[in-house]
Sequence to fold (103 residues):
Amino acid sequence: MPLDQSMSAQCADWIAEQLTEEYGGFISAEAIDAMLEFEEEIREARGDPMMSHPEMAEALIAKLAEEGAPVNVYGGINTPMLVEVLHLEDEFRANWGAPRRVR
Fold:
């Protein structure tokens, strides 16, 4: 189930906060929000709402690179980071009462 715009913004803020606390780096909530939006687009385009996190992370890397984001470079976005974002999104969704199922 896609998050509505308000919940998506809250989810992005929460994930950015968690990543900052856990890893000491900084990633903007806006970047996370874009990733969440791209994720929904990818799931819909592929007709695969249960796409696994590793598969989704690879698809997101490709989409982010296409959009000009710094991927797979020092200080940029990488696949393990995206998998962590997806797990944090799962945690947010579970706490919100709308867990999702993935393979």
Q: What stands out?
A: Residues 19 and 25 are 7 Å apart (CA to CA).
